[in-house]
Write a structure and sequence with these properties.
Length: about 525
């Protein structure tokens, strides 16, 4: 029997990691971290907190839960860190002036882009042995805070209340060790050009059947083809029960039309605009942890994850992204103040980008020998993931009902997001935060942050919760590489369909009065 290939070992290791991660998720108490994130800011006048657990050898501490960070994204030496010192000395420490911080404080600040001015750190003691096994830390990055004896006593009481949860985390570190071992193995095996980062493989749901004879594994949501990592039953349940609110912002796109570029614009804008208060955009993460894809989140993590994310962001703008058509939105009702950013792109560029991405996606089983011309035939036919691209775009523009007012949906082209960054940044600022003033320097920073190479380097070096492989996902960053990739026949076929669907246009739809356009918000020429 031949030895398994690197790709097969990668798949096996990824499945095993998923199983171990689910075991850890059952072990840790999400209710505790959610309760802390909801109550601590008001109790202690803070903008961040961190719950830390001491390693078995007492040499390091890891961040198990906190504001604006993912689980275990921070691991520091116990020696020389604020948390480690509180644990070693078995007493609460209050640091009211951290302007001259050093050591772990500096390295963590550089990673997160956050430097607290004040921090209060209390140890958590094991209820069985009395040993210090973790710490709860509250921080304020806006101004120094002079915490009182009452504040210190309250934090220590909270540490006592969560001690059993921390004890469970401390006692089951073999699960964490196994996760780290698998992450290292996956990283070593992830030499194949897979579209998903090692360690971030998604579960698939049955029945996942082939489309067009072979490949394109999928499920059906009504009559629409969905990828197999979306549980259509869970999605239907979400659609029957989820009511949006005034804080919700949806980036609505078909696949490979500029979704993550739009996310980056939105995250950078909210990061700038909400600096005066605690928010999930502090780390500028554009992954699922900060800007979720609800259909995938409910499928992979359950409805509770959606509710927890809403609770974490209950009083700030909350960004999501969806690839579904307007008719397939997974909501029961739309709040009249919910906002939408609909992104479209030249269909020729969409076809090329989808072709390369879907072929390299490990869960879709698209045939390796599928040629570009063959794919274009399928693209023009329209029966692919999330439905016909032309109908998808037209559906968001025309909308059969009046649930979204025209001034609450902004239509942006990928080409404008690439070539007119300052105007796009300004338009999004006026659309999303109309009562917030932005300096020219802030607008310039937002535009610069969305440059292709800068985005790719940032996600490669610090992916945070971004689950896709940037080597594959960030392919060209240009608007016209389809000119070199498509045959004359393929170009003609796509243009013919575009003209038929979009009133003679080939590069994008005619934008009617049902949407807001870039020119409406930048004083440029409009439609």
């Amino acid at each position: 029997m031949p030895s398994p290939t690197a790709a097969e070992r990668l798949s096996a290791a990824t499945r095993k990691r998923q199983t171990v991660a689910e075991q850890w998720a059952r072990t840790r108490n999400n209710d505790v971290s959610n309760l802390l994130s909801t109550t601590l800011p008001a109790l202690f006048d803070i903008d961040r907190f961190g719950l830390f657990v001491l390693s078995r050898d007492s040499q390091s501490v890891w961040l198990e839960a906190g504001t604006g960070v993912t689980q275990r994204s921070i691991v520091v030496e116990a020696e020389g860190s604020l948390v480690g010192e509180a644990i070693r000395n078995r007493q609460t420490r209050i640091d009211t002036d951290l302007s001259n911080g050093k050591g772990a404080f500096v390295s963590v600040g550089e990673k997160l882009g956050y430097w607290p001015q004040s921090a209060m750190t209390a140890p958590v003691f094991c209820p069985s042995t009395g040993n210090a096994i973790g710490a709860l830390q509250v921080m304020n990055g806006e101004r120094p805070v002079a915490w009182s004896d009452r504040d210190q006593g309250l934090l220590e009481e909270l540490c006592h209340s969560i001690s059993q949860t921390v004890q469970v985390l401390h006692q089951h570190q073999e699960i964490v060790v196994e996760l780290e071992r698998l992450d290292q193995e996956i990283k070593a095996l992830d030499q194949q050009e897979s579209a998903i980062r090692g360690g971030h493989m998604l579960r698939t749901f049955e029945p996942a059947t082939a489309l067009h004879g072979e490949g394109f594994l999928h499920g059906l949501y009504g009559k629409t083809v969905f990828p197999p990592f979306i549980d259509v039953a869970a999605n239907a349940d979400l659609a029957r029960s989820w009511d949006t609110d005034a804080y919700d912002i949806f980036i609505a796109t078909h696949q490979k039309v500029g979704t993550h570029l739009a996310k980056k614009f939105v995250v950078e804008l909210l990061h700038e605009g909400l600096k005066h208060r605690a928010n999930v955009y502090d780390t500028r993460d554009i992954g699922h942890g900060t800007v979720p894809w609800p259909e995938v989140s409910v499928s992979q993590h359950g409805r509770a994850w959606i509710d927890e994310h809403i609770a974490r962001t209950h009083d700030t703008p909350r960004a999501w992204y969806v690839h579904c058509s307007y008719d397939d939105m997974p909501v029961r009702s739309l709040h009249p103040q919910t906002k939408f950013i609909m992104v479209y792109r030249d269909p020729k560029a969409v076809a090329v980008s989808q072709y390369f991405f879907w072929k390299r996606h490990p869960l879709l089983a698209v045939p390796e020998d599928l040629s570009m011309d063959e794919f274009v035939e399928l693209f023009v036919g329209g029966n692919l993931y999330f439905g016909d691209y032309h109908d998808h775009v037209s559906g968001w523009i025309s909308r059969k009902d009046q649930r979204i007012a025209p001034h609450h949906i902004l239509a942006l082209s990928y080409e404008d997001m690439v070539n007119r960054k300052p105007e796009v940044a300004r338009a999004l600022a006026r659309f999303l935060l109309p009562h917030t003033s932005f300096s020219e320097d802030a607008m310039a920073r937002i535009a610069e942050a969305t440059e292709f190479k800068k985005m790719k380097d940032e996600v490669t070096n610090n992916p945070q919760s971004f689950h896709l492989n940037p080597k594959v996902y960030f392919r060209s960053g240009t608007t016209n590489d389809w000119e070199q990739k498509l045959s004359d026949a393929a170009i003609a076929a796509i243009d013919e369909k575009s003209r038929a669907k979009w009133d003679g246009r080939t590069d994008g739809p005619a934008l009617n009065q049902g949407v807001t356009v870039l020119g409406d918000l930048t004083d440029d020429s409009g439609r």
